[in-house]
Amino acid sequence: MKNPSSVVIVEDHRILRDGLRSLLSSSLDLKIVGEAEDGLSAIRLIEEVKPDLVLMDLSMPKMSGLDAIREIKKEYPDTKILVLTVHKAEEYVFASLTAGAHGYLLKDAGRAELILAIESVLLGKQYISPGISEQLVSAYLEGRKPLEPESTWESLTKRERQVLKLIAEGHKNKQISDYLCISAKTVEKHRANLMGKLDLHNASALTAFAMEKGLTAK
Questions:
Q1: Which of 64, 108, 168, 212 is the most buried (most CB within 10 A)?
Q2: pLDDT higher at 199 or 185
C-alpha cells in the first residue's frame, strides 16, 4: 500500500482551512502535514515539511499567493501547486499558471471536484476549473497571453508590489523591513519609487490603488 500524498493548505481564513482539512482528512490517499495563513509562512512551512502538494489561495496578507508560487517553484520545482481561489478573471488564471501552478480551481467547487483536481495534479496533469471559460483555457493552451494594455502597474518591480501590498495592509516601514528582510531605508526608497511611478503621494492613495489591483486580502 502506497504512502498517502502530503498536502499543505495555504489560506488566510481559518474557517476555510478547517473546512478543507475536514474535507480532505477522510481521504486515505491524502495527509494534511501543515497549514499556513499567508505566503511568507507558507514558504517557511514548505521548506520544513516538503509536501507533495500545496493548496494555494491567491489573496492573502504579507505575501500574495502568486509571489509564493514563484518562490516555491524556484526552490522546490517538484512540489505540485493547486490554486484554490474565488478569482475568475483571466489575469489571475494566466498569472498563476505562468508562475508555476499546476492547476486552478474555483472555491465554489464541491468535494468531488476538489479531489479530482488534487488527484490530477498529483499525477502530473493540469487541471483548470470548468468555471473558467473555454476560450480562456484554449488561449492558455495555445500559448497566447491575455491582451492587456501597458500601464504603470506593469512597470512595478516584484519588490515594489510586495511593499505596496504591505503598505495597503497598514504596515509601517519597520514592520515591512522585518517581513521582507530588508533595511528600513530600502523600504523608504521603494515607497518613494511607488509614489513616483504611480503619481500617488500618500498612503491612502497607495492603499486605494492596491485594493483596485486586488493586492489586499479578501
A1: 64
A2: 185
DSSP, collapsed to helix, strand or coil, labels residue 114 as helix
pLDDT tens per residue across span 155-172: 788 888 889 989 988 889
- Which helix (H) or strand (E) segment holds residue 53: the answer is strand 53-56
CATH of the domain at 159: 1.10.10.10
pLDDT of the residue at 150: 45
Q: Which domain CATH number covers 72?
A: 3.40.50.2300
27: pLDDT strictly greater than 90:
no
Considering the domain architecture, whether residues 159 and 131 belong to the same structural domain is answered as: no
Domain-ending residue, one of 110, 141, 172: 141
Structural contact between residues 142 and 99, judged by C-beta atoms closer than 8 angstroms: no
Show the domain range for 163: 152-212
Q: Residue 81 and residue 100: Cα distance in Å, rounded?
A: 8
Contacts of 79 (CB under 8 A, 6+ apart): 46, 50, 51, 52, 53, 54, 72, 73
Instruction: Tell me the pTM.
Output: 0.68
Domain total for the chain? 2
User: Is residue 217 situated within a structural domain?
Assistant: no
Q: Please name which of 69, 90, 67 lies closest in space to residue 157, comparing C-alpha atoms.
A: 67
In a domain, 125, yes or no: yes
**Higher pLDDT pick, 157 / 212:** 157
* Dihedral over alpha carbons 37, 41, 44, 46 (to 10 degrees): 20
Both 164 and 92 in a single domain?
no
